[in-house]
Design goal:
This protein is mostly beta strands and about 120 residues long. It is built from two helices and nine strands.
Length: about 120
Amino acid sequence: MGAFRVSVTLIHPEHRDRTAHLELLLDTGAPYTLLPAEVVARLELRATDDWQAQLASGDRVVYPLGEVRLRLGNTERTTLFVAGPAGCPALLGALALEAFGMAADPVHQRLFPVVGHL
């Protein structure tokens, strides 16, 4: 699948004056949104849990997991984020995409609305 970037605004869930505008790389294979440590620190986001993962290299890692509010277009949703290491790519994961009721069109590099399933 072709990769493309999506413009979003990150918003602290409790202190809505703390925002950041970012271009997130869409990664429908990743469940959670991945944010670099410096973005998490700048917004003072709080991680409440640890998330264990296995990287493509086979290495196992533990990263902090928390909540962030995302604005995509005129819509806002709260989603989970993983606080990655400093300098890591910022990724928009599948759970956030589903929360917005959107799917990826990699050919035209855009998001489009879809009907949710229960």
